[in-house]
Amino acid sequence: MHCRAVLPLLLLPATALTGQNAISFTQPYEPITAQQRLKWFSNAALGPSSLLTGAVSAGIDTLRNDPPEYGPHWGGFGERYGFRLVNRTVSSGIEASMGSLWGEDPRYHRVPQVRTGARVRNVLRMTVVSHNHDGHETPAYARLIAIPSISFLSNTWIPDSRNSTGDALNRIAFSFATHALSNAFIEFWPDIRRRLHRNRSIPDPPSAPPAVALR
Prior knowledge:
Layout (H helix, E strand, L loop, with lengths): L2 H15 L16 H13 L1 H17 L9 H29 L13 H10 L3 E3 L5 E3 L1 H13 L11 H37 L14
Antiparallel strand pairs: 1-2
Helix pairs in contact: 1-6, 2-3, 2-4, 3-4, 4-6, 5-7, 6-7
């Protein structure tokens, strides 16, 4: 199996999910601008969630010494982290540039007005679905092309112990999983942050007056 064989398998669920349980925007949809697309690329490649995910993944693989060619030391951690950073940057660049050709919007749009279950479903759905320049849902073609492409292309520079077709498929699954986590962070972190701020702003209840001994 190679990249061209994977794409139809990804398009099937993406096409089936397009328009299913779609949630309307609370405000009129505005197409993504060139500046917003560049901002999305920088956040997707070098944003906090991307850097943190890469560091955690590289740390786990360093503890497991996977792949063994990198070694279980700080130098190996740096190589693993660099590998993921390059892959993420190239994949995001392909998605942003290709999507611009047909107006695909790679951004995740929050839906805080619906129930939690619907928000979770939206997080998962929008991993393989995006919006076109009219705001209508469409399979995320640029993403469905970018992630498999870089996953198989990276077989040319990753150590031999991890450059099989199965390894490339694992990287594809991992990339979509981290994309879903990124969507979840965008969807729910503002609510969590607001609640934390609210709890800090609540003053402590006044202390009770000292008890007076009765004689």
